[in-house]
Amino acid sequence: MTTPTLSAAGLLKRYGRVTAIDGADFEVFPGEVLAVVGDNGAGKTSLIKALSGALIPDAGEIRVDGEPVRFRSPLDARRCGIETVHQDLALAPAQDIAANMFLGRERRRAGALGSVLRAVDRAAMRAEAQRVLDELGVQVKSIAQPVETLSGGQRQGVAVARAAAFGSKAVIMDEPTAALGVAEAGKVLELIDRIRARGLPVVLISHNMPHVFDIADRIHVHRLGKRAAVVSPRSHDMSQVVGLITGALEPGQDGALRAVSGARRTGPDR
Ligand SMILES: Nc1ncnc2c1ncn2[C@@H]1O[C@H](COP(=O)(O)OP(=O)(O)OP(=O)(O)O)[C@@H](O)[C@H]1O
Description:
Number of helices: 9
CATH topology of the domain at 6-89 and 155-235: Rossmann fold
Distance between the termini: 34 Å
Shape: globular
Bound molecules: adenosine-5'-triphosphate
Domain ABC transporter: 6-249
Order of helices and strands: EEEHEEHEHHHHEHEHEEHEE
CATH class of the domain at 6-89 and 155-235: Alpha Beta
Number of strands: 12
Strand order of the largest sheet: 6-7-8-3-9-10
Largest sheet: 6 strands, mixed
GO molecular function, one term: ATP hydrolysis activity
Organism: Saccharopolyspora dendranthemae
Keywords: ATP-binding, Nucleotide-binding
Helix content: 25-40%
CATH architecture of the domain at 6-89 and 155-235: 3-Layer(aba) Sandwich
InterPro entries: AAA+_ATPase, ABC_carbohydrate_import_ATPase, ABC_transporter-like_ATP-bd, P-loop_NTPase
């Protein structure tokens, strides 16, 4: 059996009386796009924070390539090859694209200039940033352009390309198409496709069902703080996934979906 690249079992996180993560399990496998869907407040963001080191769970286990890890900070997760693109993108608007690609991981000049004076190797960073953007098909006028001059889609492209460049194990994206128009969202989906083609798994948190069905290999449905089901977009349709999100449907013992009596129904009867 293939070992998941990133997995979690029995994660728990409480904020006072609120249980944000309630025994959640999670698995993403090499080379797949896993969509994570769920209602507002279902705990998707908290789950992703735990997987990216932004939140320390009260209990449960996280593994990378089958080995248990403990993320005390986002830096720990990054050191393990897990890169996350949060909704705020964490870009420095006044700085150029290359500087943003290497934010906090600047290349230093060779010799004493770099090691003693900490001089950054701007030419090397620009060349490498351009190479990554070209490879992933992110188009910009100039690599030396400040990020504040880019469109929303291009900014998303830069943040995602940065994650793909440094992520050796997995890239996690929180709602990457939420603020974008149709054409720009399409480009981000193409970018996700290219990252998958390089063999890097992508975890995509999204409310947009057409996008999820367009790109995902599997769909993790999160409900009431835990994983409620994992389904394939090839064997299930959107109304079934919505049923799982609302709790109108649940997987039975045999894995087939069954209606939950008394639950709020959405979508057509089946
Ligand atoms: N720092 C916090 N302090 C207190 N409660 C929190 C905190 N973070 C999250 N919660 C609560 O935990 C629950 C899950 O929140 P979370 O943001 O993970 O959900 P979500 O599925 O990502 O929702 P959304 O899609 O709206 O972001 C919510 O009830 C939320 O109010």
